[in-house]
Amino acid sequence: MRLTTKGRYAVTAMLDLALHQGKGPISLADISDRQGISLSYLEQLFAKLRKQELVQSVRGPGGGYELKRDSAQINVAQVVDAVNESVDATGCQQKGNCQSGEICLTHHLWMDLSGQIHGFLSGISLADLVVRNDVQTVAQRQDGRATEELILASRSS
Amino acid sequence: MRLTTKGRYAVTAMLDLALHQGKGPISLADISDRQGISLSYLEQLFAKLRKQELVQSVRGPGGGYELKRDSAQINVAQVVDAVNESVDATGCQQKGNCQSGEICLTHHLWMDLSGQIHGFLSGISLADLVVRNDVQTVAQRQDGRATEELILASRSS
DNA sequence: TTTAATTCCTACTAAATTACTCGGGTAAAT
DNA sequence: ATTTACCCGAGTAATTTAGTAGGAATTAAA
Fold first, then answer.
1. In angstroms, how far is C26 C1' from B123 CA?
2. pLDDT digits (tens, 9 = 90+) for A31-85
3. Does any strand C atom come closer than 7 Å to the Cβ of B62?
4. Where in chain B is the domain with CATH 1.10.10.10?
5. Is pTM, for the whole model, over 0.85?
6. Interface probe with A: pick from B74, B106, B118, most Cβ of A within 10 Å
7. d(Cα A124, Cα B19) in Å, to the nearest integer?
8. Arch. (CATH architecture) of A5-85
């Protein structure tokens, strides 16, 4: 079962994209600033997200990334799956060869858990997250700070 | 979120204990043979399980481990928690300081997921697992093989 | 047409974690 | 006494994560 910073970063970045939808492509530099994720690392994650056709890119100045589908059509499980291998709690990638070719004592338990997690995460779309109160609050804080930094930067120039 | 071989081994070993309950203490060597887990590694895991008072030990010849509580009173979440730090999907150990002291955009999502996983695993006791068909089948295979090996060993001596 | 912004791509690396091994203890039964 | 088993701490190889580095390709705008 892998659910580490990698998967969390991916979901966070995708949610950032969903929140700033309709303003043209969003650059990874913006996401990096807002979410505090290293730019190079974001590039690697978005390479995978693009392969899975969850985002599309626009190159050149003013370019960036956009969701390839509507935010209601992208769920959290898809995003995590795109960057991790899978939301899988078994040790055998569900093959059932966990104990020298045969299934181990707890194989079905981990299969059930995997199903549970996948069911939960696939039931939550980016659109669902966007309208959540806690997400709105944090997003406002992040956008506010970004604006603040812009003002500070323009003053000092 | 950590759910790796470590946690799976712990649950498997505890289930082995539950399956062979009432036959006196079970040695780690037996569990190692049946479940294909390194003996030394099992020792480390059982040190933690003992600290959490999930098992008790009997030293000396004929010794081993027994469940400290009834198998119905021990759930899978407790076992995983005993060896991993926790079944926690957040990156901040639920402290909410994920983004430079404040909560990150997806904090509540991972809190919810953690709750979901914990709820699922804490709803399954060792006793529940023991009576499952798939567990029974594998247990029979494992016990059968152990007996077979005994016969082969006695023949070659 | 140059410049700058941006994605794209590959390789490398530091830190952490996992999944062990090793070597010696300590307690208790025979 | 000897053996069986738990107990304990240190060390280690492999893997993964998280991130760096450097550059090439693309394209909008100056």
1. 38
2. 999 998 999 999 999 999 999 999 999 999 999 999 999 999 999 999 998 987 6
3. yes
4. 5-85
5. yes
6. B106
7. 38
8. Orthogonal Bundle (1.10)
